Amino acid sequence: MMLTMSTEQLSPTSFLVLGLLAREGPSTPYELKRHVAETLGVIWSFPHALLYAEPPRLVAQGLATEDHELTGRRRRTFSITDEGIESLQAWLERPARESTELRDVGLLQLLFANVGSRDARHQIATDQLSIHRGKLAGFEQSETTEVLKGRPVPANDKPQQWRGQALRMGVLYERAAVDFWEGVSLGVAAEEAATVRSGREDVTHG
Amino acid sequence: MMLTMSTEQLSPTSFLVLGLLAREGPSTPYELKRHVAETLGVIWSFPHALLYAEPPRLVAQGLATEDHELTGRRRRTFSITDEGIESLQAWLERPARESTELRDVGLLQLLFANVGSRDARHQIATDQLSIHRGKLAGFEQSETTEVLKGRPVPANDKPQQWRGQALRMGVLYERAAVDFWEGVSLGVAAEEAATVRSGREDVTHG
DNA sequence: GGGTACATGTAATCAGTTACATGATTTA
DNA sequence: TAAATCATGTAACTGATTACATGTACCC
């Protein structure tokens, strides 16, 4: 007899939920949502509806079990099964070949910024700068302060450490993004200066 | 009288196609695919089926027109309409509030790496390092060399410039990623060393 | 003249997104 | 007790992914 055919159509979302169930123990979708919001969610958004939809799928595949509260809020608590853990571990051993998806509509706009007005370019750069600066400020404290300082990574609390890592990547990315958009801003400013010097004041095209 | 109600349900994919049609002129889906592969595609993947499916949607909304070749390959060539250009420009003026989606399954694995073996952690870090180093090498030349050196951005060729920008962000990101995963590698190595020192040689050592 | 890589497209499925809707707690 | 916010879910739609499938050009 064969073991399981599981791990067949599991998505990143599936492994996110499996991983959380494995690490945090039995959880309701709302608790999953909370944990995601604190960690991966800051760089890779998972709408809460997903975290309600995914656990039942796992149950259908025998990777989790459900416990439905009968009173009050009628919460649904999900737990990972042994198969679930196996599946998760098998996935951890399997090298991820895909490289990062860096989906950024600001970048997409920049790509075609020449079709818009010079003013639009200016606006795009400004908006993006404030977005990325905001993000950076946001978790430069929550990460550095909370994870690295508040708790000096007690070496035996590995889970914490690995979790902090994910946020560190976010910080690195946001720093790069701020640098990048500052450069773009300078470019736009230079462009404006050049236009003014050369006396042209045609509004619509760059 | 109102102008148009367009720009209502357009996705990033829509604007990608509109932008390419605006910049490159009438194109077949295959040509779109080529252009995407050269630029945004390296950091934000758009499967080719998307680029076949999107143009007809734009046609249905009056943002593009189709010209179907009757002989040989029966190519379908799409052109942007005036409404399409308006829609694109309106979108460029509209600030993008969403921040970057940084979807990386390597990071997701790292997040739960403590559930796996130490060996798995090592493997993850190694794999990711080679992926990101590969990407970096890949377009550190294609970008820096081709865009910045080969053609010294002749100031009047703005489109080129803006396109190059998108790739520059990719380079910055990959550099950050390499730094990050090098750090993780060190962490894993330290963990291994610590385990060896403390004499435990459990698990997978045959 | 057969293989192989490029070119071109379609179909089915399903995850993901958006929107809606309401229940429970807290606070003013 | 009203308002606000947190908590909990479901339903519909559709874009995205995957898989399939065939045509055309080129090269050995």
Commentary on this structure:
With 206 residues, chain A is mostly helical. The first copy, chain A, folds into two domains: 12-93, Arc Repressor Mutant, subunit A, CATH 1.10.10; 105-196. Helices cover 62% and strands 6% of the residues of chain A. Chain A is built from seven helices and three strands. Chain A has a two-stranded antiparallel ribbon. In chain A, strand 1 (64-68) and strand 2 (76-80) form a beta hairpin. In chain A, helix 1 packs across helix 3 (48-60) and helix 1 packs across helix 4 (82-93). Chain A is elongated, with a radius of gyration of 23 Å. Residues 1-7, 147-156 and 202-206 of chain A have low confidence and may be disordered. At the A-B interface, helix 1, helix 4, strand 3, helix 5 and helix 6 of A face helix 1, helix 4, strand 3, helix 5 and helix 6 of B. The structure holds a DNA duplex (28 and 28 nucleotides).
- Which regions of chain A have little confidence, pLDDT < 50, spanning 5+ residues? 1-7, 147-156, 202-206
In terms of quaternary structure, the protein is homodimer
Most residues in contact, chain pair and counts:
A-B, 73 and 72 residues
Give me the strand/helix succession of chain A.
HHHEEHEHHH
Helix content of chain A: 55-70%
**Rg over C-alpha atoms of chain A, rounded to the nearest angstrom:** 23 Å
Largest sheet of chain A: 2 strands, antiparallel
Q: pLDDT average of chain A, as an integer?
A: 82
Per DSSP, the total helix count of chain A is: 7
Secondary structure: number of strands of chain A = 3
How many structural domains can be distinguished in the coordinates of chain A? 2
Class by SSE composition of chain A: mainly alpha
**In one word, what is the shape of chain A?**
elongated
Distance between the termini of chain A: 69 Å
Strand order of the largest sheet of chain A: 1-2
Strand content of chain A: 5-15%
